[in-house]
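User: Can you predict the 3D structure for this chain?
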Amino acid sequence: MSNEFDYSKLKHAASVDQSDRHVPYNLRQSGPTKVEMLISTRVRKSPYWHLSMKAGCWRATVYNRVYHPRGYVKPEDGGAMVEYEAIKKHVTMWNVAVERQIRVKGPDAEKFTDYVITRDATKISPMRARYVILCNYKGGVLNDPILLRISKDEFWFSLSDSDIHFYLQGVNADKRFNVEIDEIDSCPVQIQGPKSKALMKDLIGDQVDMDNIPFYGLAEAKVGGRDCLISQSGFSGEAGYEIYLRNATLYADDMWNAVLEAGKKHNLMVIAAMGLNFMDSLFIAAALSISSTAIIIKILQDSGKIKKESSILIMGILIVEDVIAVILIASLESVGLVGAVSIETVVLVVLVASGLFIGTFTIGRRVIPPLIDKVASVQNREILLLSILGVCFGYALLANVVGLSVAIGAFLAGVLVAESKSSEVSKILSSPIKDMFVAIFFVSVGALMDITQLESYIFIAIALIAVTVAMKFGANLLGNMAFRQEKAKSLRSAFALSAPRGEFSIIIVKVGVDMGVVSAFLFPLIGLITIITAFISPFLIRLGDKIIPKLVKS
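Assistant: Here is the predicted structure, written as structure tokens:
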């Protein structure tokens, strides 16, 4: 990617070219709005901003009242996964100048710092850093910065997203503490990835013993001939580093270019600080909140548990989840289009779904079951099977036409067929068709996967699976117990519903990808999660069968 940037293309009111993004007219979103937003003079450009632009920054947000780069590789060139590969295999530099440095300096610096943070400042040695929290009088978190102790009488608060500068000055408004509190011109970059230490050794030579610097240890060094403070941390399993450049406004280019030069042989890449954007996070959360009806029912049928009392509870929860999934899809489409949830859209979906359900259990119940019985009386299995499929596809089409999921339509068709006197024959006839469509579903999920990219997604997928399984298990267990369900039934429901993600998970992410509001890599990522959770679900249910009796007795 070229390092050249044509500044003539920049407009006064737009700091980043986002012409290729479809951004809604919403003042809470970045991008074009219905009015000209005069924020360019009120939001800071850090000393590294122009360097980030040269490195290819195409997307940014505002964090701590500073422009914060959030993307360097565009989606059509691979997007965030290219940046993820760089931090996983090589070494990366992040512009994190948004971490503004508030200095507390003076004879009472230790006493004042100890007064405003929740941990013991007296135990932090000079040239060491610690994660700290500042709270208000009720215990609410004001900020959780990294605190750097530069010397006996000097501390730096490396801020997260809130302005502590004036708060600290306000705390000392009566001058109880003999300290000076100011914001200094020192801005950090982060060096992260498995080759970080090798790059740092090439960058600063023998100025600092990089093999023995402790975690959160500090050291003074020159980078590009300029005074810097080096700190060791680590975003991943490997050691990582922060370089705090002193007088950053004057010397940003010198330090930045020195890092780029030293990083050439290590495949250094300038990337955004790791983390998914809001839309990606929102669609992932929605996709992973819905359990797979097809997978769970198939497992319960194969294990002979479909008629158990706990299975009836599970199927009831699945029906509700499917309805919620439809509302979620409508809401997410609204968020993607206008940047906010349209209450009108959600209400309309709820009304349509309610109408379809009421119509099914009033009119449909009086028409469809007698019709199926009449066809069955002809005693022609082919005609009966075609009739069942006709009802299924017809109801699925009806649901789709009114804006609901075809899965809900097919499910309601199945409920109506089950009301007929010939339901057992219908079930036997439709069973091979059901198995075929389940197989097609898994084939379609498998088709989403590019096994050459498996390594790129596997760790993210495992982390998301661990979190969602735990959250889903806990939520189901607590919900069932809140409604006074039996302990055994609650546990069986939690084990069954905790893992499998499937059809709606894929549909939800597909909606986001088709609208262009989420990263393209979410599609294969959710596909991989679907495959893994489908594989582990039977084992979780069997595990539940073994330990639930013991848990009930305890």
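DSSP finds 17 helices and 15 strands in the chain. Residues 278-385+431-553 form a domain with the Na+/H+ antiporter like fold fold (CATH 1.20.1530.20).
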